[in-house]
């Protein structure tokens, strides 16, 4: 704690969204939405097709950010918004005020999405809700390291929000959560991410307006933060309780350039009591993100749009996630860490090809908890790339390509000099590489094919078959939630294993989605000899949203 305080003084202050989105935007002659690499995002329930009058300048139930509407609004920095958003406050249902009563009445829940509170409609309220039932089965969780077999978890998440707009420049949003969890041979419930008594999940106040030719705003309070590469930070949607932050962000969006600055402290989800969530002062996320929309161009007869992003993400944290391995198998050196991530990302579409290339240099320091040991510098890196060939004119509108990742490793026998292991303490997206979280984005090389197919308009299927190696055989194997495996005595070779993954999703009715995720864990001889166990994960999710 004291070492982290010293550090703080040194630190710098879909796979599927709405299946109706593209058709609706075309009706309004909106700018064509640019394809992006398949984002393995939990499916969003299908919305009823809105009337033309409900669509404003290409924005469907979210503010119109111009070219930054790309990727179902992901380019804006507020997450995917295909009708319903990853962050529900990123939605804007004021378009319903301009639809006829006959159209609004086609969906009963429309009466909850735009509630006029004064005569001219400048003050209005929007209500949202989610009920999600999830079942997870793992026969060898954490490759056998969890000490459980045939673990079954049943998770029920209930989230309800209210978005109050006070004129054009001020709005407030509050979201409440209640999470229930049970099962057999369970593990991990003590972390505060599975069970949650009634509490404030998000609570923000936003002040916004136009200044210097840009749409600007400041958002303060407890909130989801999604303006970072999915390989580095995510909303932690695998469990009942998402990752939220206490702090502020300021944004400015011009016609072809945007800027986001932020400074957050992690929400503390413990103790598990009613309205007991506080702030974790031992975990901080801060920095700035910029994105430039490059000039549009034609390639292979198709309109193309690329974005160049430059960003700085600062991590400041202690606890289990900050520990590093020692030379002794199973040994850990405790401490606190500051990670300074300087990165660039080039992404978008070039004709039928969706591309994303991210490079990050990670500097900073590791400060051992034991005062007699010297502070060590951090010198690590990550490179992430995806390219997908999309054919919407073929049956099933398939996309297929390849994803490759390198997250640098260090040396567990090296107890001085720089730390070379890349760190991602704030929940890299599990769907990105490994759904089971058996492995995480540290000391890891992964490469494998990706594919997606629309069996029919309301059914989607996705495949990913990554093959993994350790980036440095002198370093440990790392798992999710800050886990460092003790398998080192007999561990040999860099090859780790293969984890084939399939996701099938059916939006069987408006507001409803039913998803099945299956992952196999096939390990190398070296991993099995060291004590790791092969297994399978099956997850079924039934979700209702309004």
From TrEMBL:
Keyword Signal carried by entry: yes
Extent of the signal sequence: 1-28
InterPro entries: Alginate_export_dom
Keyword Signal: yes
Domain of life: Bacteria
Keywords from the UniProt entry: Signal
Domain Alginate export: 124-511
Protein's UniProt name: Alginate export family protein
